[in-house]
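Sequence in, structure out. First:
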Amino acid sequence: MEPLYEEYLANRGTIVKPYYWLSFSLDCSNCPYHIRTGEEARVPYTEFYQIFGFPYGSVYPQTKHLTFYELKTSSGSLVQKGHASSCTGNNTHPESMLFEMNGYFDSAVHNNNTIRHIILYSNNSPCNEANHCCIGKMYNFLITYPDVTLSIYFSQLYHTEPEFPASAWNREALRSLASLWPRVTLSPISGGIWYSLLNNFVSGVSGSTVFQPILTGRALADRHNAYEINAITGVKPYFTDVLPQTEENQNIRAQVALESYLNNKIIPGQSLQVTNGQPQPNLTPDLKAPVVFVLVPFRDLPPIHVGQSPHKPSYIVRHLNMPQMSFQETKDLRSPPMGMPVDEVEIMEQFARSKEVDEKKKKKKGKK
């Protein structure tokens, strides 16, 4: 294997030329070192905000592509972290650089057989446009390394709207990639994953910034991404919804803002007037207002095992829904409320069939 890249030791990690013929370019501020590993992969908070749109929401238009990555073992231990940035001079996306044949990931996995899981955190979902073929290269990589699983998190969808000429290709490629579930997962960045990125990939962040609340604009964008990727692929993503759900008024505000976001892609500064024959007050929440929720530390998802689970249950058990009970009736959860009969039914299909066969046999014997 002859690698395409050149890697150099730096103070806090390594810096990599994804193509050994690259040189310093006035057309691209990141050339020639588009891949950085270890602590060299950290970016300033202002750059993270501008590219990923955290904490206020998506920043339009977005021309830069940035992908953070983690290479892990099957037990979840970190082998390497890093980032890859797009090359504006050569019009190359980060995923194209990373997954290229004889490229950086190809060499990393070839030389370290303990790498079993790759996690990407990108500002844009991967595309399959002719100049980049990011998803196509991912496919070829996964065929070459069948024991490797891939999780992709993104902060916005890239060129999937009908107004983009390549949207049909991108949507179809995303569907094909998602069809490899559970080996491949496609999900929006949401909830605690934002704090994990701040902690692991952003420099100059104080403690208060790391744990600042997710604002409504960002939460709406994350919810919209979850809705869209599910509509495109048919696969429900891993998603943590942090919009307030405790008060009816908050629910109405969030729902109205979400519907507007899905239809019009509202961004901070825009407002929504709902008219229903009568003038209505502006129900759009302040997209820069903090979302109130309980912060749960982000934990890595368990390793994904491809193939049938050995612990899959051999019987199907169905439970009937319990009737709705008032607060007074549910004070004692250990026993059903007085005067309200509750039937609990368990249907074990295999045993139900065998019991029915036994009863038929008994009836036949009785007739004889």
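Second:
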Amino acid sequence: MASVIVRGWALCTVSLLNFAFVFISGADFIRFLSFRAIYHNITGETTLCQDSIPWSVALRDSSVLRSLFVDVGLLALFTTQHSLLAWSPVKQAIQSVLGSLNRTAYCFTTALALQILMRYWQPVTDAPCLWSVRHAPWSIWFPLLCFSLHFLCWAIIFSILLIFDYPELLGIKQVYYECLGLGDPLSHKSPRAQRLLSHLRHPVCLELVVVLWLLPALSLDRLLLAGTLSAYLALAHSLDKQDLAYLRIQLKSKMQLLTEPHRGSGDCNVRDNSNHKEK
């Protein structure tokens, strides 16, 4: 009995530490994609691009090529990790070793790959921008517009996480169910939910594409990042009309719960009273 309790506490501790690491990595990822890219020069840092340098010269510059080579390697590391650990034979092998920590390990390695990518990413500052908004008044208003739309997109992503059951997405529910002896949480979901999750594991498609491309200035390394992640997103999911219909139903039900909490609690009280009377 004591060994079971110790094992349960160990699993919960690992899962919660992983949740904290993923949360921190997510915050860093938002800063990396949005805030740093929009307000790069706000504190007088180095310029994002050198428009005076011709493309023919920039693409032969050894520093530019070195930075692009490093960035390509970092993107390859992330996409390989994200795809390899989601491949069924690898997933089954990890499941046989780690058990309920399988999803936790996947989220941890994803966050670790993102941290490595953000830490060692090499900005390309010795090449022209593909576009750059530098003339007043758009040099002030367009970054503000980008910031507002980025904020809206991240808010939509986080709200959709509520529909996608974020404790299960991060591996917390797997550990909780393992401690209670309930098995895999996915087995308790409806067939339509299981079908949706098999087609798309996380809600980062259109909103992330907007965040990647909508910027006051698009540098060469940002083009590489946005193009690679957009292509990866386009190839990674296979949603269809049934999945979209299910998402609409879930979004509607979640919005009703959020907008009518008092009504929901009243209905629950009525049902509880009626059940008590029946008993």
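Remark: The chain has 13 helices and two strands.
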